[in-house]
Amino acid sequence: MNEATILNVKHPDGQYEVMVGSGLLPRLGELARIAGPVAVITDEHVGPLYASACGEVACVLTVPAGEQHKTLPTVNGLYSQLLAAGIDRTGTVVALGGGVVGDMAGFVAATYMRGVAFVQCPTSLLAMVDASVGGKTGVDLPEGKNLVGAFKQPTAVLADIATLQTLPPAEFAAGMAEVIKHGLISHPRLFQQIEDEGRRLRTMSPVRLQTLVSEAIRVKRDVVQEDPFEHGRRALLNLGHTFGHAIEQVSGYRVTHGQGVALGLVAAAHLSARLGYCDAALPARVEAVLRQVELPTRIPADLPPDPIYRAMFSDKKKVGNRLRFVLLRDVGQVFVADDVAEGDVMAVISQR
Length: 352
Ligand SMILES: NC(=O)c1ccc[n+]([C@@H]2O[C@H](COP(=O)([O-])OP(=O)(O)OC[C@H]3O[C@@H](n4cnc5c(N)ncnc54)[C@H](O)[C@@H]3O)[C@@H](O)[C@H]2O)c1
Ligand SMILES: [Zn+2]
What we know:
The chain is an alpha/beta fold and 352 residues long. Helix content is 42%, strand content 19%.
């Protein structure tokens, strides 16, 4: 078996290891150095496939799958089940699943008995490269996504890439949108690797997949390490997301997050080229790589530009009255601009 790749993540209270490799789950206790009782939190899709691989644990708590269950009522149920299973402050909560499980289990670990140890075992590509690193956890409120949460650093992250074999293709594509985003932010070699891999991405060898995942994590690691509480540089991770969130919202979430990010990356590239910040050929390059992984590159014709523009103003990441965009100078070179004129933004989102 190929050796796991290990990335060390430093944070204000210490550090932890992110391990990326095949066949890590059966070694959970040893690799994550868990002492006390283990409570695995998973969802109804992932639990039946992988909970038994995690060895002997005190309890497996299964929640329904999907963002609509990332809520305080679900968290409440989890607290009760942890109590019923006799998990005390010596316990460890293990998140086994996608970003929904990771965010919610992390919030439970941050708050149950004022905080217990937490280990992330991400099983979706998005959770591996994005959600499981950086310490942000939380749940949604009826009023909006991720409105309640806490920073909770894991003691270890085990990204077992063998689990990606069962990930539905659309979820793999959604994760690839974030991987491509990470390449654009600061890793031209990663971006190039995806371009070279072409349509073979889904059938990539475990060794190459391990490299792809660990290099994508490296980008997020480097950014969050420099800005653990999101005061500055972490804003760069929002590349494509101001456009993306607005498109998702206006579509009534028919456009998924991964698709929204893809459309947002295309819009950010076009805006950058239009304003003369990057080569005029860059947008086509971004579009081509997204098409390779079957992500959309054109905003659906039935979503008019006006509501998209207005929705961008409700984004919680905007500063005061100004829209803030992450723009590109080249693959691997991004910066924040908050002086973009409405006309230029409208021109880009009117493009079909
Ligand atoms: N905390 C952060 O920094 C951060 C960053 C990005 C996203 N997020 C959050 O992550 C969530 C999205 O995560 P996601 O895309 O992983 O969604 P998800 O957790 O809903 O997983 C997507 C689907 O894939 C299934 N699945 C996961 N792994 C599988 C596997 N190996 N085999 C078969 N099915 C599998 C899940 O059951 C689910 O149905 C959102 O709630 C978002 O807010 C958090
Ligand atoms: Zn995203």
